[in-house]
Amino acid sequence: MRSVDKAKRTTIKDVALRAGTSIATVSYVLNNSKDRYITAQMRTSVEEAARELGYVKSSIASGLKGKEMGVIAFLTPQFDNHFFLEIFFTIEKIANKKGYVLSVCNTLDDPVYERTVIERMNQLWVDAYVIIPTHRGTENTAYLRTHGIPVVSVERPLDGITDYDFISSDNFGATYEMTAHLVGKGHTRIALAYWDSPIVNLKERLAGYRQALEDGGLRFDEGLVKRTGELTPAEGSRITREVLSDSSITAVFYAQYVLAEGGIKFLRKSKVQIPERISVCVLGGPKWIEMSETRFAHVLQPGASIGQRAAELIFEKLEKKSTNNVQEKIACELHVGDSIKDLTVI
Amino acid sequence: MRSVDKAKRTTIKDVALRAGTSIATVSYVLNNSKDRYITAQMRTSVEEAARELGYVKSSIASGLKGKEMGVIAFLTPQFDNHFFLEIFFTIEKIANKKGYVLSVCNTLDDPVYERTVIERMNQLWVDAYVIIPTHRGTENTAYLRTHGIPVVSVERPLDGITDYDFISSDNFGATYEMTAHLVGKGHTRIALAYWDSPIVNLKERLAGYRQALEDGGLRFDEGLVKRTGELTPAEGSRITREVLSDSSITAVFYAQYVLAEGGIKFLRKSKVQIPERISVCVLGGPKWIEMSETRFAHVLQPGASIGQRAAELIFEKLEKKSTNNVQEKIACELHVGDSIKDLTVI
DNA sequence: TGTTTTTAGGTAAACGTTTGCTTAATGTAG
DNA sequence: CTACATTAAGCAAACGTTTACCTAAAAACA
Which one of A181, A244, A252, B276 has the minimum C-beta count within 10 Å? Predict the structure, then answer.
C-alpha cells in the first residue's frame, strides 16, 4: 500500500561529499586513472565512501561524455534458430570477458521492424553491432556505417557494399557436398525444398545444388526445385506432399531446416518410410535432428567458428586495431546419417 | 585504406542552428510538447532541418535528464529454453507496441554472472526488468527493488521477499496431473528424473509427484526420485541407465525436459521400446517432442500466458497505474500422447 | 637559499538533452 | 489608451560524468 518513492541514485557528487573531496578526485579514483597522483589514504577513503553509499556509475552519463557504453547489439531475425543462437553464444562468451554485454534484439526478419530496432539501439549509442540482416540490411545500417560505428554482418551479406565485415558459412559448399553425396548414392531425381528469399547469398544454396548435379553428369531440372516464399513448417509440409506425388523423385533435400520440420512431420503422419520410400537430408542441425530416431543426413553450419570470427572482427574495430573490412566464408560439415538410401547396391 | 573519421553525430544544437532558432524550441518541437506555443512555420522548419541533417535523438542524454530509456531488460538463465523463449516472444510483442525494446541477456544460471549482468544493466539505467532469476535472485536484485525499479520475476520466485511481481506456471499441478495419469494407467513404480536445484519453487514439482502418488494410494519411495545437481542431457542419460537397471520400474517422468533429452537419446541408443519396456513422460514441450515419431506424454507450460501477464505487470508499474505486488500461478496443459503403457488392460 | 620538479587535488567546462523562467510581441477588454 | 491575457520563443540551469587546466604544497636540485 505504502508507496515507496524511488530512492534517488547515489552520484559521484554524494561520494565526493562523504569522502570530503571533489568530484574530480572521485572520478579519477573510481576509474583508477594513472593521469593523476592520489594518496593511498584518499584512495581508500573514496572507495569506502562509494561502497558505503552503494554508488553505481552511470554509463549513460559517461557515455554522453564520449566513453563507450559497453554494449554490443546482436540483431537476429529468428530468435529460435539454433544456428544463430550458437553464433550468439560464442560471441557473448568472448564479449563478456572483455566487459561488454550483448543486447539481443529480434528483427523478426521484417525489414521495417529491423529499421526501428536499429534506430532505437542507435539512440542508445550502442558501441557496435553484430547483425544477421534482412534483405534491407544495407539501407537499414546506412547511418551506422557512415558514422563509423562497427558493424559485422553474419551469415547474410549487406547487399551492394563493402564497408563492413562479413563472415558466413559456405552456403554453396553446403548444398554442393550433400547433393554430390546423393548423386554418389545413385540418386538422379533430387527435389530441393528451397526458400526463395531476397537474401542474396541464400541463392548460393541453389547454385551449389545445381553445380553438384551438373558435375555429377545430371541435368538440372527447375521442376525439382520446390520453392516457397515463406519460411514455415507448413510450407515444408506442402512441398513434401508435392514431392511425394511424383514417384520418380527418390530424395528430398531441405535447404532450410525449418522446411524440414514441417516436411518430416508430414512424412511421419503419412507413414512414409525413410529412406525406403524417400531419402531425406537437411541443411542445418537443430536439436530435433540430434534427438531423432532416424539419423538424418544433414549439413552442420559452423556456428561457433562464425561467432568466434565475428567477435574478433568486432573487437578489432572497437579497439581500433584495424580498419580493413573482410568478407569470409567458413565451411560446413557433412553428416551422412542413415536417411539416404544407397541406390547403387545391386 | 583511407581512415574515415567517425562522423560526428548531429545534435539538437545543429538542428537549431540550421532552423535559425534555439535548442529549446527544437526540443519542444521534436517532442511535440503541448506546453509550448509553436507557429506552424517554425515547426516545419525545425522538422525539415532535423530531417535534412539526419538528426537522431540521444536517448542517453535525455535519459540523463530523467526521461525513460525505453529499454526493458529480459534476463534468462537459459537462452535455448523454448519455454523461456516463448515467454520472451510474448513480452516482446507487447513491449514493442508500447515503444520499448527488450534487451535480452543471458545469466547462464550462474548467480555470480547474474549479478554482473544486473549491475551492467543498472548502470545503463534500464527502465524495468523481467527476470527468470537464479537462486541468488533476491540479493542480486536488491538494488533494483530498493530503488523502486520495476522487477517482474517469471517462473522462479525471489526467495524470502514480496516487494516484486511474480508470475509462474503451476509446477505442483504439472507433476501432480501427469503422475496421477500414470497412476491411473496402473503404474506403481514411477521414477522421477529430478533436478535437485536450489530454486525453491522447483521443489513443488517433487511435491506434486509425491502428492499424486499418495492420493492414488501409493507409498512415496525416495529411492525412485533420481536426483541430479546438474541440469544436463548427460545426467538425464545417467539417470535413465539407473532406472533401467531396476526392472520393477515401469515408468520414468522427466521433471525437466533437458534431462529427457539425454534420457531419450539413451533409450534410443539402447533400443529400449517405449512404452513396451518403459513408459516415458516429460515436463515441458520443446520442438523435438513435437517432431518426434513417438508422441511423448508431456505437460505444456503456459509460456504465452505467463509472458502476457508479465508484460501487463511491468507496464502497470512503468505507467504507475499500480504499486501493488502480485504473485500468480498459471496452470499447465497435460498432453497424453502414446508413450505411456496402459497397465490396467487385461 | 632560491628555483625547479614532483605530488596532490580543486574548478569548471563540456557531453546532448529537458524545462523553468524570461522577454517580447501581439490581441483583447475595459 | 491603458491593462492584461495570450502567443511565441530565447536563456540558462540542470542531469552525472570526464578531463583540461589550474594552484599549492612538498621534495629535489642547484
Answer: B276
User: Residues 6 or more apart from B319 whose CB is under 8 A from it?
Assistant: none
Cell 554485454 belongs to A101
In chain A, % of residues over pLDDT 90: 91
Nucleotide D19 C1' to residue A38 CA (A): 16
Query: pLDDT tens-digit profile of A177-188?
Result: 999 999 999 999
Q: Count the neighbouring beta carbons within 10 Å of the beta carbon of residue A214.
A: 11
- Strand A151-154, strand A128-131: pairing: parallel
Domain B71-169+303-330 in CATH 3.40.50.2300: yes
Q: Strand pairing of B251-254 and B225-228?
A: unpaired
Question: CB within 7 A of strand D: which residues qualify?
Answer: A 8-9, 11-13, 23-24, 27-28, 30-31, 33, 35, 55-58, 61-62, 64-67; B 20-25, 36-39, 41-42, 61, 64-66
pLDDT tens string A217-254:
999 999 999 999 999 999 999 999 999 999 999 999 99
Q: Strand C-proximal residues, CB under 7 Å?
A: A 20-25, 36-39, 41-42, 61, 64-66; B 8-9, 11-13, 23-24, 27-28, 30-31, 33, 35, 55-58, 61-62, 64-67
* pLDDT higher than 70, residue A132: yes
Tell me whether residue A149 is exposed, middle or buried, using C-beta atoms within 10 angstroms of its C-beta: 0 to 12, 13 to 18, 19 or more.
buried
Side-chain-side CA neighbours of residue A323 (13 Å): 10
CB B153, CB B105: distance < 8 Å? no
What CA–CA distance (Å, rounded) separates B261 from B240?
11
Cell 558466413 -> residue:
A168
- Give the alpha-carbon dihedral of B33, B34, B37, B38, to 10 degrees: 40
Q: For domain B171-301, give the CATH number.
A: 3.40.50.2300
Q: DSSP labels for A165-233?
A: EEEEE-HHHHHHHHHHHHHHTT---EEEEEE--S-GGGHHHHHHHHHHHHHTT----GGGEEEESS-SH
Instruction: Please compute Rg for chain B using Cα positions.
Output: 26
The reply to whether domains B12-57 and B71-169+303-330 share a CATH topology is no
CA of B21 to C1' of D12 (A): 15
| B146, A7 contact by CB (below 8 A) | yes
Q: Comparing C-alpha atoms, which of A38, A79, A251 is closest to residue B303? A: A79
Cα B188–B189–B191 angle (5° rounding)?
135
* Closest CA relative to residue B180, chosen from B209, B202, B223: B209
The single-letter code of the amino acid at B186 is G
* CA A140 to chain centroid: 17
pTM of the full structure: 0.92
Question: Is it true that domain A12-57 has CATH number 1.10.260?
Answer: yes
Which runs of consecutive H residues, i.e. helices, occur in chain A? 12-19, 23-30, 40-53, 59-64, 82-97, 111-123, 137-140, 142-146, 171-184, 203-215, 233-244, 257-269, 287-291, 303-318
Task: Give how far the C-alpha of residue B49 lies from the chain's centroid of Cα atoms, to the nearest Å.
Answer: 43
